[in-house]
Amino acid sequence: MIILFVKCRQCHSDSLDKNKVKGNIVICDGINDNDYSTDDKISIVQDLGALGLVHITDNEGAVADNYGDFPATIVRSKDDATILQYVNSTR
To answer: Chain centroid to CA 77: how far?
Structure first.
């Protein structure tokens, strides 16, 4: 079960529930995830009907990138606690 949680948190394609993703902005933990890039995760959540993606990762450069017409951003791991604290406080 822990493996499934990690895969879900990292937004691996075989672990996400379309009903939970659809219509939401999805936060993906990319720390220690060398299997999927930001572009991969965009494709995964977009196919499931997400409205946007926040990808927490230090793997990719700090250079602004264009992800097409899908709203997505990269957040460094040093800032993830602040974002996750906010999300958890608004539930």
So the answer is: 12
Collapsing DSSP states into helix, strand and coil, what is residue 14?
A: coil
Choosing among 1.10.260.40, 3.50.30.30, 3.40.1030.10, 3.40.1550.10, the CATH entry for 2-89 is: 3.50.30.30
Would the pLDDT of 63 be above 70?
no
Other residues' Cβ atoms within 10 Å of the Cβ of residue 63? 6
Q: pTM higher than 0.70 for the full model? A: yes
Q: Please give the sequence-ordered ranges of beta strands (E in DSSP) within the chain, or none if there are none.
A: 25-29, 52-56, 72-75
